[in-house]
């Protein structure tokens, strides 16, 4: 029941900037709330829009004093200030992740980047190389890995509670693109120039893929994908059926869809091993079901009996008091923050700290790339081009 | 709330024989209960075992007066009696379905046969041809299509409530073969000589496939299958991942498994169209979830508000009083019984009567055959050899 | 997974008569199906209506050869036949239970009577006395105690798995009388002359009360009731709130309602002890939730891992294959049938056999009586007048 | 999908102080997170403990610059500063609510006070009078009324969607005091001198009572309570069964328990009217079930189709992205913040703004008082002494 997050606030707050996330944006606001929940960050600068006036208006809305008309200007000027930002949150459409990130990391500014890493695989490789060379902390907000019960699931897999993993069933179903949609969120996500070659695969398939990797600890060897664009005129996939083969011999299926009628944000993971399985659904994330062979199915709750340290260290409130999406997202910020502060202080980072970064980002973009290539070859088994 | 089933009992009960289903059998007992629930049948003869003594012992257990040591003897002798059986229930392992059925149908005795139709596709084609020529009623107990809410789902699809179907997600997960098992039920199901080339695909995959076809009304064009035998030494598949392409352009995924830890009888169907989706789970079969685009998800209950005639005609008790597996199974018997009585009386059969038969049986065996062939070609898209 | 019920059929079927249950009746049809499921009974005679023509018409519908125009005639004539009925099922409105039962039991014919035992407490006491004196088997169809997971729950309480019981929360919510209703089912249930002084308390409150007693093993000491008739002009209660005090010091609440909007047949039992709790819902009766203190909540399934012998002996099919209301009801028939056959054979009755009878019937009527008296005294604590 | 909360941040942040909530406290940390989520408050001062050293240590933990050794000192000194606190959060044990609040409100400092309002009814009346006289904003953190779907439920009741309300079923079940517990949280809650005469009734019963009032809009006329202390030696109730009679003729039941085995934070509200019912559970707060008479049950989701403006104005993220306890709590802070800023600016307060305050506080303490008095008179119907 401990509320431990506040303790880390004793270090001075991390000075944060943001690129993107102006008026009408969704994910920018999520990043800002996530950065506040544990009082670890302070948002002090932003290039909230590529239009300087709109950027300034958003800054005023948010009570942020330093507003910039371009990310390049922001990178240059902040890097020169003594009290300049220590980290930047990148919440632009996909095709802008790489250019923006490169501008900041080359100046030693840590990066917290929305997923997927980039719109294309060559870009991703280039960015990963540059980021590694720079030595900055690079966090990618595959936020679902921040949920405590996902941490619990991973810990159980690692402890061998499931036995040897045989099967991974993961899906992410939405319906918001079931028909022609015309708004800011939809427009760039269905434009290959901005989203990349993958539509649903890039936007949500990468989350599903990442989540399965995170919990299972497995590495995907090859996949066979059948991609569809159900909505006439759509230029990217809005539904994908993918068969999975992992290095260990485990097999799986991944389904992602933005046209599954009546689905809101149906991310669901099921993993079955030789001893037991686990089942988790994002829409009710405080529960983890465990399904042993030969014993009754049971429900672990966030912080409740049987839930261990891996979950406890990223939870804030007692069992029965549900945490949600924002807290899970905040956990990515908190974990990245621990790394940033360790870097600032020159202190050792707690080995338990975990957040997605360049490796996961590269894998995600390679996953989309492989899906698109496999589907173009009528579902031929295709290896990730890592 | 009407209890209408009893009305059909006014016709004299159908004289039923059984082949297989002796002591220790599972599905034979299910067939017997199913045949009794609506008081339409009377079990009067049986070749419950190929061992005459065991057959007689089972007959005594069951209070059945006419016991035979072989199905051939039973077919011959019953055909000669004035009060001989009108129908035979075949509840043997798969490889015996065809030889037994042929013996009865050539004598004009109606057949109620457990699924799959046969162990091999050539056998299935031969049997289907002979059965059609004979003119007997041939029912195949794909019992899950007997559930009222499955009838409701089909009626909703037909009425256009879902719009144009885009996606079919169907799965059937069990864990009873997760490890080496040694019992009567497991032995023949993992022996290709008795079960056919498919393991989980034949035993439960055919159910899933049939259920999706029944509700969606779609025809499968081709499939791509990745079959596994996770348990060392197993000679048939115990898990299968299958991608589906339907004639209409709809796509789908089918997963069947007998090694999914902690799963009992997890048959689950989800279908999504341009307007709405439906979701159904066999383990709680009295509910059908409807998931419209742009309106709240709602729950239809068997006999409850919003549930229509297609469900009502195969239900016995008011909403909130759950019906289960045996009642669903009994609905196949009741529907086949209506056809048998119509044949006996020379009367017209109510157009609403529906039960799986030769067409569904052929498709099921062709499905298994295509899965095995596709998997052997590393998941190449493969057409059903119908 | 054993299908054992059929074995008892080796004894000749019990010859059964029925009083009530003619065309349009609900519960009569349920009794008939329940009597058939395990092939233990044969319905051979009936006074299905007090109108001889209607009785004969129902008999013809049902294929029952011996039809009577009155229960008295039936009792007399059947008692004289060598092949006369051995047991009678009474499925009339409440006020007729006692007169009918007395007529049969005084002739040594076993009685299977719908609940509640009678419409009034004096009648109940008289009937109980007469029935005990007669020595017949007397079963009362508090059918919910026939559900396997209710047997499992009782066994767990008896084994001490819950520790000392502290709390009983039981409810039974429907909405079918939420407004003025005019049909055969509603008419007699809202007429005190036929239903007795209790409305919802008699019709469903007695089920809830009985279920709680059965599982908990506790005896109610006193209750405080607040009864309402929400529908204008209704002459009996359609909703009741009842506080419970048990002999052991345990406390509880009982809610029954026929005006709870949107509820179908919401019978739900929760019992909490010093070590663990159990939770069960009739609308999905194959699951029993166990809620230990200090360990995760788990789900027992009918026949699944962790479910014991008490449930197994009243189940027919494997876990994951849902059983429902009719199978639960059939278990009361099966248990009573075991007692009837033991009586017929002079054999000892298996100690595990359990079905509700006179004691439970008396308690139920006393419960209704105490509710009505307490409510009339503005909810004063009131003892059962047993 | 709008993220609107941030817009209110354009006003300068509200300077907040805190009394209580030092190291090891639970609810203080919750208040702090809640105050941060929408960026409306800045915590600048605290009397986190009555021990000055402990207070200072907590302030250092939290990065709060102004630390005080007593609430009285803090009230005096802050009131004198130009940049002194505008509002104080009181998160002490119950008996300290009144003395602390009085000290601040008499200096015109707004109060955000944890529930229940006070430990005794006379105190509550005195505090309410003084607070009203002072004119400050007084918010009481009955946080569950901050959940969006609770706002939705209230709006539906007000719109008449349920018809006339007949029934209220509310419960709040936990098990953390099922046995003797010895920790800071448990100690004061089971000490009548600090918690007041009610145990579970005060700690959680008041939440349940408040929630039912908030959604139903009804006023309780009288109650009949049966209170228990199941754990030997416990000086306050740990379980309560309460019958409810509302002014409109509606009736209800309230159950609160801290000894219900296996329950974490089981607050559950069900309200049934002449047209429909609603059902909500705190542990999965993003769903509201609506149960009409004569139509299928449906599920409203936070922000999803059919969910209206009342919910939308207190939600931050799209449907399918779960919000939890902290966001609900933050909504109370956000609503109170709107009132505080309106007061600061002299602007009109949006009529939609709603948060619990003195009226709800008084009712809650009167509820506990009536429960204790009724139970002492063996459950006699007792009016609230308002």
TrEMBL record, chains A, B, C, D:
GO terms for molecular function: nucleotide binding. It holds the Pfam family GFO_IDH_MocA_C3. Transmembrane segments: none annotated. Residues 14-141 form the Gfo/Idh/MocA-like oxidoreductase N-terminal domain. Residues 150-279 form the GFO/IDH/MocA-like oxidoreductase domain. This is Oxidoreductase.
């Amino acid at each position: 029941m401990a509320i431990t997050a506040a303790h880390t606030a004793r270090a001075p707050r991390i000075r944060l900037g943001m690129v993107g996330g102006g008026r009408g944006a969704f994910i920018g606001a999520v990043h800002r709330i996530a950065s506040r929940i544990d009082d670890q960050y302070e948002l002090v600068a932003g290039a909230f829009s590529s239009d300087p006036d709109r950027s300034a208006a958003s800054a005023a809305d948010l009570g942020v004093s330093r507003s910039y008309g371009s990310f390049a200007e922001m990178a240059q000027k902040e890097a020169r200030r003594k009290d300049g930002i220590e980290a930047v949150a990148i919440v632009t459409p996909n095709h802008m992740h790489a250019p923006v990130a490169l501008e900041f990391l080359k100046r030693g500014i840590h990066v917290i980047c929305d997923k997927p890493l980039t719109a294309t695989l060559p870009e991703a490789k280039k960015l990963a190389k540059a980021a590694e060379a720079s030595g900055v902390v690079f966090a990618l907000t595959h936020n679902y890995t921040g949920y405590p019960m996902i941490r619990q699931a991973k810990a159980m897999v690692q402890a061998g509670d499931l036995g040897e993993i045989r099967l991974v069933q993961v899906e992410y179903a939405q319906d918001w693109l079931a028909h022609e949609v015309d708004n800011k969120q939809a427009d760039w996500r269905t434009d290959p120039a901005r989203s990349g070659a993958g539509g649903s695969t890039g936007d949500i398939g990468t989350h599903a893929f990442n989540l399965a990797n995170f919990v299972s600890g497995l590495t995907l060897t090859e996949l066979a994908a059948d991609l569809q664009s159900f909505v006439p005129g759509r230029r990217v996939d809005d539904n994908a059926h993918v068969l999975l083969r992992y290095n260990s011999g485990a097999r799986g299926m991944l389904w992602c869809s933005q046209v599954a009628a009546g689905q809101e944000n149906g991310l669901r993971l099921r993993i079955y091993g030789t001893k037991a399985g686990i089942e988790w659904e994002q829409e009710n994330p405080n529960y983890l079901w465990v399904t042993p062979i030969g014993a009754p199915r049971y429900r672990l709750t966030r912080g409740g009996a049987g839930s261990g340290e891996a979950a406890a260290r990223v939870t804030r409130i007692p069992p029965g008091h549900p945490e949600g999406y924002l807290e899970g997202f905040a956990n990515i910020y908190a974990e990245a923050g621990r790394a940033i502060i360790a870097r600032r202080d020159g202190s050792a980072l707690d080995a338990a700290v975990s957040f997605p970064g360049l490796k996961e980002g590269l894998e995600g973009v390679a996953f989309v790339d492989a899906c698109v290539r496999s589907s173009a070859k009528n579902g031929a088994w295709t290896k990730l081009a890592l």
